[in-house]
TrEMBL record:
<keyword id="KW-0040">ANK repeat</keyword>
<dbReference type="InterPro" id="IPR026961">
    <property type="entry name" value="PGG_dom"/>
</dbReference>
<feature type="transmembrane region" description="Helical">
    <location>
        <begin position="102"/>
        <end position="130"/>
    </location>
</feature>
<feature type="domain" description="PGG">
    <location>
        <begin position="1"/>
        <end position="89"/>
    </location>
</feature>
<feature type="transmembrane region" description="Helical">
    <location>
        <begin position="64"/>
        <end position="82"/>
    </location>
</feature>
<feature type="signal peptide">
    <location>
        <begin position="1"/>
        <end position="16"/>
    </location>
</feature>
<keyword id="KW-0812">Transmembrane</keyword>
<keyword id="KW-0472">Membrane</keyword>
<protein>
    <recommendedName>
        <fullName>PGG domain-containing protein</fullName>
    </recommendedName>
</protein>
<dbReference type="GO" id="GO:0016020">
    <property type="term" value="C:membrane"/>
</dbReference>
<keyword id="KW-0732">Signal</keyword>
<dbReference type="Pfam" id="PF13962">
    <property type="entry name" value="PGG"/>
</dbReference>
<keyword id="KW-1133">Transmembrane helix</keyword>
<keyword id="KW-0677">Repeat</keyword>
C-alpha cells in the first residue's frame, strides 16, 4: 500500500509538473515585432514543444501507474480476501458491518468516477472525430490581442 501510494504521488506530480518544466513567458513575436517560426505560450510544456513524440509517450504512460496504483489501493481497502489479510479480517467483529458499508460505498464512488472520466473522454473523442471529418465547425482560435 505504501508503494502504491508513492506511485500515485509520483505520477500526479509528474502530470502537474511535466519533465522539462513549462514555459514561463509568451514568445510569439521577436524583438522586431515579426511573428516567430515556433511560438510558445506561458504555462505550456517545454517537452511538448521540443520533443513531441517523447511528450506523447509520456502522456500515454504516465496515467498507467496512477490508475493501477489507485486500483491497488482500492482493492486493498475493499477487503478482498488476500490470504485473509484485509481490513475486514483485522477489524473487530462488531465493526465489520460498518467497514463493509464504507468499502462498498467507496468502490461504487470510484467506479462512478471512472465512468464519468471514461464518458467524458468518449465525448471528447467523438467531438474530435466529428470536427476532423467536417461535421462540426472547428474551434475558433482566440487572439490574445483582443483580451488586452
Amino acid at each position: 500500500m505504501v508503494v502504491a501510494s508513492l506511485l500515485v504521488t509520483v505520477a500526479l506530480q509528474a502530470a502537474t509538473t511535466p519533465p522539462g518544466g513549462v514555459w514561463q513567458d509568451d514568445y510569439k513575436v521577436n524583438a522586431n515585432g515579426n511573428p516567430v517560426k515556433e511560438p510558445h505560450m506561458a504555462g505550456t510544456s517545454i517537452l511538448a514543444h521540443i520533443q513531441r513524440i517523447a511528450y506523447g509517450q509520456f502522456m500515454i504512460f504516465n496515467p498507467l501507474p496512477f490508475l493501477s496504483s489507485l486500483s491497488i489501493i482500492l482493492l486493498l481497502l475493499s477487503g478482498l480476501p488476500i490470504k485473509r489479510r484485509s481490513l475486514r479480517n483485522i477489524s473487530l467483529a462488531d465493526m465489520r458491518g460498518m467497514l463493509k458499508d464504507v468499502t462498498d460505498v467507496s468502490v461504487v464512488c470510484w467506479l462512478c468516477l471512472m465512468g464519468v472520466v471514461f464518458m467524458g473522454n468518449v465525448v471528447r473523442l467523438c467531438v474530435w472525430v466529428l470536427r476532423k471529418w467536417g461535421y462540426l465547425k472547428q474551434k475558433e482560435k482566440k487572439d490574445s490581442d483582443e483580451d488586452d
